[in-house]
Design goal:
The complex is a heterodimer of chains A (94) and B (251). Chain A is mainly beta. Chain A has one helix and eight strands, in the order E-H-E-E-E-E-E-E-E. A five-stranded antiparallel beta sheet of chain A has the order 1-4-5-6-7, with no helix packed on it. Chain A has a three-stranded antiparallel beta sheet with strand order 3-2-8, with no helix packed on it. The chains are: A mainly beta (94), B alpha/beta (251).
Chain lengths: 94, 251
């Protein structure tokens, strides 16, 4: 098992949601701490990844990946996630 | 703070692959569909075995800006699933599947001009191959002519293990200049003023911008290195939001 951080989730998040949420603020449902997804503690195995809160170690999100291309995404421990809504005119986020 | 560049899957062709250090290769890729990338971003490289098994790993991009050529610098993890192939097997003309550009958090873009304000300085701190995205930031900074003060503290095992050696040296005399502080952890050049030793709290304090100058700090390296350095920075008074980190493990 490899210990990484939330930056490594960028590709999975982009594939799953269509946007890279690593800079988005997430609130831990367990302890209430919040911060960008990028600072979450991520444990990677061949099965997939688990993202945990750096403050309380609570599970924030899980990706389980099967060899046939299917994947299961769980978000049991994020009580709120920051979303920036884009308009055609917006060149860059604030 | 980052320009929006859609991340999608691309097919890249290897233009060049050569030794970067005794354990790493510099791989230049041509990606016709590439939208350009901000400094510090990464790609996910996906390899597919003949039996369909796929392995995906993230690699920082050592280049930035527009254009369809990107540079990776991949350090071999001997037991890894992906890096030994990239370091030993990949040749010019080979094709790779990659996803990117990725990473909205660990990126640097030139700050918008703010008349009358001095831009906050930037302190980069690298452990080993963690220098790759930080080199991209320093090069982009020099390229943009942005006047922000830039420093790089680079912890590396031996002189031969330095990534982008010539390019980093050139940046120290560019305008605006990068200040480069190298810490050799196992073997230093013969005339080096300090004996080889790991980065410690004291060495960090001596070679990094103080919290009082409110630098934006980017730290990239192996997980234990980043954990230690980030902890010392917070203890020294840097605000958590000012310290951006990227950790990597064996792959």
């Amino acid at each position: 098992m490899t210990t990484l951080d939330g930056n490594v989730l960028a590709g999975r998040l982009a594939d799953t949601f269509g946007w890279d949420a690593t800079a988005a603020d997430a609130r831990c449902a367990t302890c209430g701490a919040h911060g960008p997804i990028a600072i979450a503690v991520v444990y990677a195995t061949r099965m997939g990844v688990v993202a945990r809160c750096g403050n309380c170690d609570g599970v924030l999100a899980t990706f389980v990946e099967a060899a046939d291309g299917r994947a299961w995404f769980g978000m049991p421990g994020i009580s709120a996630l920051e979303i920036t809504r884009w308009t055609p005119e917006s060149e860059s986020p604030a | 703070m980052t320009s929006r560049r859609p991340a999608t899957w691309h097919v890249a062709t290897v233009v060049d692959s050569r030794n970067e250090t005794p354990t790493a290769r510099r791989i230049e890729l041509d990606v016709p569909t590439w939208p350009g990338n901000d400094a510090g971003s990464h790609v996910d490289v996906r390899l597919t075995a003949p039996d369909g098994y796929q392995a995906t790993r993230s690699y920082s991009i050592g280049s930035a800006g527009e254009g369809t050529r990107i540079v990776l610098a991949v350090d071999e993890v001997p037991e890894g699933e992906v890096s030994p192939f990239l370091v030993h097997e990949l040749r010019a003309g080979d094709q790779l599947e990659l996803h990117g550009p990725l990473g909205a958090f660990f990126v640097w873009t030139p700050p918008p001009p703010a008349p009358g304000e001095t831009p906050r300085p930037v302190q980069l701190i690298a452990g080993g191959s963690g220098v790759v995205p930080l080199y991209a930031m320093a090069a982009a900074h020099a390229e943009s002519g942005d006047a922000t003060q830039f420093r790089l503290l680079y912890s590396v095992r031996t002189p031969e293990d330095v990534f982008f050696r010539d390019e980093l040296t050139a940046l120290t005399v560019a305008e605006p200049a990068l200040r480069l502080d190298i810490v050799y952890t196992r073997r230093a050049p013969p005339d080096w003023p300090t004996p080889p030793a790991r980065v410690t709290r004291d060495r960090l304090q001596a070679a990094a911008l103080p919290a009082a100058s409110r630098p934006r700090v980017y730290v990239c390296g192996p997980t234990p290195f980043v954990e230690a350095v980030a902890g010392w920075l917070i203890d020294a008074g840097h605000r958590p939001g000012d310290v951006r980190t990227e950790r990597f493990g064996g792959s």
